[in-house]
Amino acid sequence: MSMTQLAPGRPGPAAKVVRGAPPGRPLRRRFPLAPYLMILPFFLSFIAFGAYPLLFALRLSFTNWKGSGELRWIGLGNYTYLLTSSEFWASLANSGIMWLLIVPVQTIGAVAIAAALSQAGLRGRGFFRTTLIVPFVTPLIAMAQVWILLFDADFGAVNAALEAVGLPSIGWLTTTAWSKPTIALLVLWKTTGFAIVIMLAAIQGISDDVYEAADIDGAGVWHKFWSITVPLMRRAIAFYVVIATLGISQMFAEPYVMTKGGPYNSTITSGLFLYNHIGSSDLGLGAANSFLLVLLVFLLSLVSVRLLRSKED
Amino acid sequence: MSASTTTGSQRLRTFVVYAGMAVLLAVFLYPLWWMASSSFKPGSEIVTSPLSFDPRDFTLDHYRAMFASVPIWTGFLNTAIMLVLKGGITLVFCPLAGFAFAKYNFPGKNFLFGFILLTLMLPTLVLVIPLLLEMSLLNWVNTYQGLVLPGAIDAFSIFWMRQVIAGIPDELLEAGRLDGCSALGLYRRIVLPVIRPGLAALAVLTFLNIYNDFLWPVIVVNDASKQTLQVVLSNLSLSIASAQVDSSPATVWGQLLAATTVASIPVVIIFVLLQRHFVRGILAGSTK
């Protein structure tokens, strides 16, 4: 506003600058203050609720603070404690197993289903896409509660179905062998539709010409899938693997609601392990744990981005 | 795609795809069907015959009992407050920042935008402990401002809105500027009307995120009167069991399923009605 009011003070040149400005940068120097004001709220909010707690956490991670009293400096004590604690490594291992149970089968499945849905002449694609994504929009906590009942060892529908076909019932959430797969099934149920939609969009981005050229060469369906579809979807696949990995490294609500980490700590994921520090008021330790987790997430993202780059070459 | 004649093998393949999709959709929808149908079954039947559904036994008993024992209206109310306040902040400030990054040149722009992208890498989980301490320092634990303000202006929404606004032709803004529009005037009169579909997608995605958010609400709120819907849902078995003497699965399960049905079905219906925006919103993250 102020700039436009100033303009009449030097009418000739100002008007000329406006008319002559190249289209790529039309707003340059017209409102130097406005863009800063527009982005200011984010940075204020980040300083208050991002940078400040982050620095506070960094300081806290070098203390043995328990939520009250003096902050006592213990150097790298929390870090060395965690890195030598079997519980910390067990939580990472639990998350790693979750990753193995979820990401490979989900990614491969999503690509295959998306490819099947992209076939020429298939009707009802929009209907399939809508229905597939319904589990993704349901509230996680509600569905985790339903999962507990569905997979109940004594009265659950899943065991009832197993018994109906003559199979033995399974202690889904009560045995260490099945607790992780049962949680993984919930994640698979809830997020696979999302993965399929991403892969569908990626396949639709592939030009028809490529397939027509392959048709002329007499390529079969499988050959086209492996030598055209999959390579051209690498970007989308890598993107999905990155977000799935980030999500699983922070997994917290599923075990929190379904098992509280049990049985025998078999479902204490890295996210739940971190949360448990709050319950026991080990805030210094929890802060150190946060930073180790950030470092890990950062390294995982770096590796994924690397993989994405090398594949593009 | 290709106009080749329909061969036998092609027809077979289409059939296999339809059959496979039918199985997949059944698996995807069954848990929701089981949840909703079981919530109308008499309690004893939920546990004795979990697989059957007889419409003649239809009962609303579980709903009546659930509304008495579970503070679900409190949850809905607090989630609604959060949707209005937090969603409002997101929808006002994020597109505005996106506009600045998309259509202005100013010193430090690339650095600041890169910084915003960098904060995307910061997992919420890491900030949770110090943020909770900050809230208790401010006396914001168990308050709406504590629930709403952290993370309301989020980096992803700014990034996304920048992409959307970058698609507006510069000539359009130029014309508005020659008419003497101020920065906010340009935004209100030219940018907002053009990006309405993008804003709708952002609104839908923000709604979904806030409605389903759990980690921060469960940490910053422990007062029962401020619990959001998801926090109420996470304590279901506790609140149901403490409301009655008999806590056998036969009496608890029906109420639990009634509560999860009430919490889930509205979102599913909203999704089906707005599915075009939803899918666009979800895809926006993937097609960077």
In short:
The complex is a heterodimer of chains A (313) and B (288). With 313 residues, chain A is mainly α. Chain A is 72% helix and 0% strand.
Question: How is the topology of this model organized?
Answer:
The complex is a heterodimer of chains A (313) and B (288).
Chain A: H1 2-6, H2 11-20, H3 34-60, H4 77-83, H5 86-117, H6 125-137, H7 140-150, H8 157-164, H9 176-204, H10 208-216, H11 221-232, H12 234-249, H13 253-258, H14 270-279, H15 283-312
Chain B: H1 8-38, H2 43-48, H3 61-69, H4 72-103, H5 109-119, H6 124-137, H7 144-148, H8 155-166, H9 170-178, H10 183-194, H11 196-212, H12 215-220, H13 229-234, H14 236-242, H15 249-273, H16 275-284
Fill in the CATH topology of the largest domain in chain A. MetI-like fold
Largest binding interface between chains: A-B, 106 and 104 residues
CATH second-level architecture of the largest domain in chain A? Orthogonal Bundle
Tell me what portion of residues of chain B adopts beta-strand conformation: under 5%
What is the 3D shape of chain B? globular
Keywords, separated by commas or semicolons:
heterodimer, A: 313 residues, mainly alpha, MetI-like fold, 2 domains, 0% strand, B: 288 residues, 16 helices, MetI-like_sf (chain B), cell membrane (chain B)
Question: Could you walk me through the main structural features you see in this protein, from its secondary elements to its overall organization?
Answer:
The complex is a heterodimer of chains A (313) and B (288). Chain A is mostly helical and 313 residues long. Chain A has two domains: 1-32, no CATH class; 79-312, MetI-like (MetI-like fold). Chain A contains 15 helices and no strands. Chain A has helices at residues 2-6, 11-20, 34-60, 77-83, 86-117, 125-137, 140-150, 157-164, 176-204, 208-216, 221-232, 234-249, 253-258, 270-279, 283-312. The radius of gyration of chain A is 27 Å and the shape is globular. Chain A starts with a helix and ends with a helix. Chain B has helices at 8-38, 43-48, 61-69, 72-103, 109-119, 124-137, 144-148, 155-166, 170-178, 183-194, 196-212, 215-220, 229-234, 236-242, 249-273, 275-284. Helix content of chain B is 74%, strand content 0%. Chain B folds into two domains: 8-65, no CATH class; 70-234, MetI-like (MetI-like fold, Orthogonal Bundle). Chain B is an all-alpha fold and 288 residues long. Chain B is built from 16 helices and no strands. In chain B, helix 3 (61-69) crosses helix 15 (249-273) and helix 4 crosses helix 8. Chain B is globular. The longest helix of chain B is centred in the N-terminal third of the chain and has 32 residues, at 72-103. Classes of the chains: A mainly alpha (313), B mainly alpha (288). Chain A: This is Multiple sugar transport system permease protein. Chain A: One of its GO terms (biological process) is transmembrane transport. Chain A: Residues 1-21 are annotated as: Disordered.
